[in-house]
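Suppose you are handed a protein chain with no further information: no name, no annotation, nothing but its sequence. What can you learn? This example shows the usual starting point.
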Amino acid sequence: MKISDRFKIAFSQKNFDNYLKAWMRGDDSTLPEGPVDADTAMTYTAVFACVRVLSETLASLPIKLYQRQPNGDKRDLPSETLYDMMHNKPNDEMTPFAFKECMMTNLNLGGNAYAQKLYNAAGEIVQLYPIIPDKVRMERNKEAPYNLIYHVKQNDGTDKPLTRNEILHIPGLSIDGINGLTPIGYAAKAVKLGLQYENFGYKFFKNGARPSGYMSVPGELSPTSYDRLKNDFDKNFSGEQNVGKTPIFEGGTEYKQLTINQADAQYLESRKFQTEEIARIYRVPLHLIQNLDKATFSNIEQQSLEFVIYTMLPWAKRWEEALNTQILTDKQRKAGWFFEFSMDALLRGDITSRYAAYAIGRQWGWLSVNDILRMENKNTIGDAGKAYLTPMNMVSMTPESAKSIALEIYNLLNKGDSKHE
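A reasonable first move is to predict its three-dimensional structure. Written in structure tokens, the prediction is:
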């Protein structure tokens, strides 16, 4: 084969097509076989974005300790130690936001969130320290099968067994109800494919954002001339830093540029679809991860509301029930204590919708001025804002009045015949 032909192959359209086919087969994959670990998955922007949205959203919600009253109302318990721990200071090193964000990140990458409980001298839980899921191995106690043992790997390589009383465990989606499924493990192929798209794009654009083309040399080059020409060209005219430079050739050498349309290979469309795949796994609306292709001003608010109801509410329930069963004692639960996230801020619509809803509640008597101000996170106006209104056409009805009206309606419908009273 002539060296000129070797140049044509090295810089040809066919060569690029062969590379594309190899990439599609996975022959050039640099990713390991088997499950994808959390660190690798987080290098994929779609996974990073979804995990960040879920973690930051839940972390922004305050969680409070309440007590149910005999009449069905609930009241805050801000003076209790558990309230202070979950709402103000979960441990000596983290803010409440950082603690909840860390636990949610572990849930969305590892399928489980663990935290070690620390007690004070009075036997109260006073601190919670997150544990990386990879360091926890769970098994049932052989002597007491219904008691779980959590083996936590220490820095020195040893395992420290902890009981359920020493561990807060929040599982994600689960088959057995105990162990949460790892989203990254079950969606490993989808994550790997997304990473391969990014890897391909990186390699493709690395050399000046387009394939080089090919050189045509009259006659035949010696191996020395071939190596010199190739190395000089790669050094001076390939890569981002050399884009736009004008090559100068000698000895009648011609350079012909090739143009590759990536859309023909559906590269960009495939990358977008893979982003949708990851968003589908985490049930995150595309507009929340900066994909606005299908978003409109009319549907974003509805999608955001659906995100709260169908995505964040189930997560909040997982948290609340885990805290109620693993943090509160039997005595506290029987006394009506319970943890609850405050999701009012997420459920707010636009200002026009909110004010219209407040107006309805105010006019029909179940909201006072102070109630509305509290929901808007504003100070109340004192006793003047405590009054509840009653529409003038609405009056209380006694049983006798109800019976009299019913009889009158019956007589009208039956042409005054009251013998069936």
